[in-house]
Amino acid sequence: MVLNLTNLKNGSVQNIAACKSYVLKGVTITQSGIYRDTLRNTVGCDSIVVYNLNITTVNKTVTKTGNTLTASVTNAIYQWINCSTNLPIANANLQSYTPTASGSYKVIITQNGCIDTSACTSVTIINCNLQLTHNILNPTDTIRCKQVSVNIANGTLPIALKLTWSTNMIGTNLNITDSAYTFTNVCPETYKLIATDNNGCKDSTIFTINEPTIGVNDINENTFNIYPNPASKILVIKDAIKNSTLHIFDMTGRIIYTENILTSSTELDIENWKDGIYTVQIISDGKIANRKLVIAK
Known about the structure:
Layout: E1 10-19, E2 22-24, E3 27-29, E4 33-40, E5 46-56, E6 62-65, E7 68-71, E8 77-82, E9 87-88, E10 96-97, E11 103-111, E12 114-117, E13 121-123, E14 131-137, E15 146-153, E16 159-165, E17 168-176, E18 180-186, E19 189-196, E20 202-209, E21 225-227, E22 234-238, E23 244-249, E24 255-261, E25 265-269, E26 276-284, E27 287-295
Parallel strand pairs: 1-5
Antiparallel strand pairs: 2-3, 4-5, 6-7, 7-10, 8-9, 8-11, 11-12, 11-13, 14-15, 15-18, 16-17, 16-19, 19-20, 21-22, 22-25, 23-24, 23-26, 26-27
């Protein structure tokens, strides 16, 4: 007996592109991938269908910085919408949009042929009028390191202050809960002070502390040395006047270290001190010498 068999099994491959999701046999699929289904063909044999499914999901996240809204997705087409009227805003078709009036806004995003719309985001327009002023106290006296008072007008507390100078652009950062503050032991250098209020409004000012003429109450700073500077772990104070007093101040003017110097060389462990600018002060017979110290780890 001869048995002739005919293979009637067949199949197909389908490449499908969809936005957000695709419904396959009543199941909603949200992830791209390869999916298979088995069907019965006209002669009663199984037919395997392979679906190459590519699902595009548009990132519709919007972030708000100050008064500006920004869509997180890049390389897309944007149209910003006023949520109160549900109408498009003229010429508002960039990734970021800064409203000119308080309200609620959303964006329609088109990417790779798919369209989605963000949720509405409320914006309250903040009219920044922050004003930062400074005053160098006793600028012409012979004390090398000065006090600098700052005042902030038209700002919303708390205020972040950032003081930088030419040799340390990281500088010192402070948060204050008042509209006035006084820096102490600000030594000769050119400084930039930036104030940022709680609404993100900013103003800045630049000032210079000049080297004074040495007076009767001052010692030439070259009478002692500090190294390394900047320092991170160990600070060496060398060539100091014996039987003098050592003070170290932080940027706020607080004395954080005091020692009576009995020898010309002193070594300090500063590994646990915070990064910032400090003033090293030597007092001998009522006369004062100051040097600036930077701690950076």
